[in-house]
Amino acid sequence: MCFAESGAIRRKFLIMGLDPGTTAAYALLDLSGNVVAVRSGKHFPLDAIIRETVSYGRVLIIGTDKKNIPSFVDTMRVKLGARVIAPHEDLLVQEKRNLSRGFPYKNNHEMDACAAAHYAFMHITPILKTVEEILEGNKEHEAALLREALLHPDAHLRQLLDTLTHPEQPRVIDEPRKPQEVHHRVLSKAEKDVLWLKQQINRLQHELLKNERALGRARQAKGPEAHQEQLALAERRTQSLQDALLHERSRAEQLRAERQRLITLLERADNFVPVRKLHSLSKSEITRAQRGSLLYVERPNMINIPAVQSIAPRLRCILCEHPPSEKLKKQLDVWLLCRGDLEVIAFERFVLIPKDQLERHLQEQALLSNIITEYKEKRAYSLARM
């Protein structure tokens, strides 16, 4: 059952198999497939299970034996910040017996929990192999990479490792020739991602071919009931590999399209201003924007005001995807502008805005702001004389 020699990181992160009900049960495995704990209890509340499991480590994956995720399991997912892995169809009793073989369970509830945990472990094994291949013996960033890979299977792991190993230095957004530098850097990352996905697809195709050959031999052979259980598991494994292969091909196609878009934009790089993009104005997001005179924010009303005020003196303005509230505009010492009709080409960490459009938009908004300010001053003066 063991995936590899268990290290401190693999013992720190856990897989939970959960069987809800009047008598609830859980089983914990580490990332090497070793059993950490198995327990059940009548009227076993969710909070009690959480208190017990967190003492063993951080649960990243929750397995269930049901196709439709039970509400108890989903609530556990939310509270633990984990990801749920469910089978394509409800696991049959014989399948659960086979999956839980060798586990120290005492009743059917614990057996179901063990089966769910083992099924989830089998599902994430290709991800664990991928992480090992990417790390190439570098254990320094193993925890961060494992956590990201298991919680966000769509993450670009090689790009993440590159960021962890060589942190990107902040840049001033209005430096000379900045657009070309930004485009070339992002294009280089896109090309690396496409190459890595090709390798992933080749690996999955090879693994799928081996599994299909073994499945074909198993279908031709006739044997006892245990053999049929193995056949059912092999069919599920084949389906899982086919799904993973389809997903990786889709990601590769998206990256190719992104790469082509970058190449096209490179031809017009001097016509654009690159601006740092933030999801919100929270403290954690603001720390990503240490330099530059412009920011582009998707959700400006999600804000940590002291954090924004700390960088306000160097900001020319903050461009907002959605309109900021009037109350917020009055609270900040920085200009908040809605993007309006500006053409915005969005990427993961920045946006590109045509230079001429941006300057015209800023001038128009500045003029409008001055008119409003003058009107308010005259209105206040008139009221004071009455």
Write a structural description.
The chain starts with 7 loop residues before the first helix and ends with a helix. β8 (317-320), α12 (326-331) and β9 form a beta-alpha-beta unit. It has a six-stranded mixed β-sheet with strand order 9-8-7-6-11-10. Strands 3-2-1-4-5 form a five-stranded mixed β-sheet. The protein has helices spanning 8-12, 46-54, 71-80, 93-99, 108-135, 142-151, 157-165, 178-220, 225-266, 283-286, 305-311, 326-331, 355-385; strands at 13-19, 23-30, 35-42, 58-63, 83-85, 272-281, 294-303, 317-320, 336-338, 345-346, 350-354. With 386 residues, the protein is α/β, with parallel strands linked by helices. 55% of the residues lie in helices and 17% in strands. The model is unreliable at 1-6 and 167-179 (pLDDT under 50).
Shape category: globular
Mean pLDDT: 75
* Major sheet details: 6 strands, mixed
Helix content: 40-55%
Blueprint (SSEs and pairs):
Blueprint lengths: L7 H5 E7 L3 E8 L4 E8 L3 H9 L3 E6 L7 H10 L2 E3 L7 H7 L8 H28 L6 H10 L5 H9 L12 H43 L4 H42 L5 E10 L1 H4 L7 E10 L1 H7 L5 E4 L5 H6 L4 E3 L6 E2 L3 E5 H31 L1
Parallel strand pairs: 1-4, 4-5, 6-7, 7-8, 8-9
Antiparallel strand pairs: 1-2, 2-3, 6-11, 10-11
Helix pairs in contact: 4-5, 5-6, 8-9
